[in-house]
Amino acid sequence: MKFFDVLVVGELNVDIILDKIQGFPVVGKEIIAKEMTMTLGSSSAIFASNLSSLGNKVGFLGKIGKDDFARTVINTLKEKKVDTENIIQSEEYQTGLTIVMNYDMDRANVTFPGAMEHLSLDEITDSQLQKAKHLHLSSVFLQTGLLSEISELFKRAKNLGLTTSMDPQWDPTEKWNLDLEELLPYMDVFMPNTEEFKHLTKCSDIQSGLDKVKSYANYIIIKDGENGAHLWDGEKLTTQPAFLNSNVIDCIGAGDSFDAGFISEYLKGGSMLHCLEFGNITGAINTTASGGTGAFKSLENVKKVAFDLFKYQL
């Protein structure tokens, strides 16, 4: 029996988001931010929360501390109906924290990884994987305890009959040491953005990167901001235009919300082009409220925003 549609393995932290910042930080000087929000952070948690809001049964496996931030993480995930029984609480390490400095359509982040660096492969059991239909992992470069064994995790998941996906996210070290030839055969859907894909393939453009990996990759989804998203289906590259929001609140979690929309429809057996379009609409909906989960209060709210602002019927 499958308890979850998706088991998310990922990093967990809280975000402290600063808005209306007067200038850029300079060493030795102090600047002012006029607005501050503390919320559940981490790409994986945003993905899990919004996937749950779209009507899926979601479980989470990650590592946090035993502190006030940990309580915020657990309580917020539970409010989103994400199962937290597989989250490991460590006495040794603190819960991660990200300071997010918002500047219009972009941002700068400073992350204290804490416990997220110390989740290891031997803490992810076959019995946990077997409870899910699908495995999703995000932010692999922040989970250094898993990074060298990530291919083995996805190989185990595929051998147990799960479908799989991953959004690699940015590498803070900018080394981009991920063996795609070893990993991608076990990855049903690989979901980087344009810059991440070019860095991971060590190519200057999307097509060159695809030429490099197409012999061993399955589906590749490349998120491209206002340019929409691209789908490589093994034979050709297709682009789906973005849904553009004329009044962006912020873009935190837009890529994670795209992932949630895409995977939600993928699990239902939707065509890849439909999944791409659905990912674009959930990514756009994300930008209508602050933080990565603010626009996903309920499925009814998501449907309303989709129709009212984008004339899209969910």
From TrEMBL:
Q: Name one GO molecular function term.
A: kinase activity
Keyword Lipid metabolism tagged:
no
Print the keywords alphabetically.
Kinase, Transferase
Could you confirm whether the keyword Transferase appears in this record? Answer: yes
Q: Which positions fall inside the Carbohydrate kinase PfkB domain?
A: 5-293
- Write down the superkingdom of origin: Bacteria
Q: Name one Pfam family in it.
A: PfkB
InterPro entries for the chain? PfkB_dom, Ribokinase-like
Which PANTHER family is this protein grouped with?
RIBOKINASE (PTHR10584:SF166), SUGAR KINASE (PTHR10584)
Name it: Carbohydrate kinase family protein
Organism of derivation:
Maribacter aquimaris
